[in-house]
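Quiz preparation item.
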């Protein structure tokens, strides 16, 4: 079976092929997930070469551990769990990181949206509602969405997010992961994942709002 055909294989068939040492299936897996694995590794280690090593260690662990894989999670989630564990170990060894689940306090006291943009809790009619709502930039957004500058603004905004938010937003919104897979791969509670995603998305929206407002 050609490498490209692996993406049409069911999860059970893919696992079976990997267990049988099918080189095409493993090559497809490497080609499909290596870039995403490296991006996640860079959330835990600061050196590109170290991230590459973590990814290679992950693939070695897949080769040696596929026979023990019980299929309780998807292959993708299993891969990212292995990567996360390897990256945490390398980062801790180099004293550049802490456990991912402990990263949330890094900006706990910094609001994602300025409190000044909301009405006070004792407002007689609309307590807690917007006092300064988001600018209606949808028309501008439609024109700007195809422009390279917009993509660059989003990229810079994503990179500027606190590490925990950046990883969660990337997995959810860039790679389209469902919440339960993000929680499983990063060892996060469902509530913590929701908070990180909300705060990250709010910051990105604020970044885009400022950008589009400048062009209006």
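Solution:
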């Amino acid at each position: 079976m050609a490498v490209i055909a692996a993406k049409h294989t069911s999860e059970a068939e893919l696992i079976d092929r990997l267990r049988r040492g099918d080189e095409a299936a493993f090559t497809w897996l490497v080609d499909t997930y290596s870039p995403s694995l490296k991006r996640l590794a860079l959330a835990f280690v600061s050196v590109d070469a170290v991230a590459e090593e973590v990814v290679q260690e992950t693939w070695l662990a897949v080769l040696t551990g596929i026979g023990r894989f019980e299929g309780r999670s998807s292959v993708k989630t299993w891969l990212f769990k292995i990567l996360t564990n390897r990256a945490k170990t390398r980062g801790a060894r180099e004293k550049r990181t802490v456990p991912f689940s402990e990263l949330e306090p890094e900006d706990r006291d910094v609001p994602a949206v300025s409190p000044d943009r909301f009405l006070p809790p004792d407002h007689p009619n609309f307590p807690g509602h917007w006092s300064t709502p988001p600018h209606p930039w949808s028309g501008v957004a439609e024109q700007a969405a195809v422009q390279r500058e917009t993509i660059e603004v989003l990229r810079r905004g994503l990179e500027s997010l606190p590490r925990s938010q950046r990883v969660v937003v990337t997995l959810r919104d860039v790679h389209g992961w469902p919440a339960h897979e993000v929680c499983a791969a990063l060892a996060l509670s469902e509530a913590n994942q929701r908070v990180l995603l909300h705060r990250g998305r709010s910051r990105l929206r604020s970044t885009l709002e400022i950008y589009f407002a400048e062009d209006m």
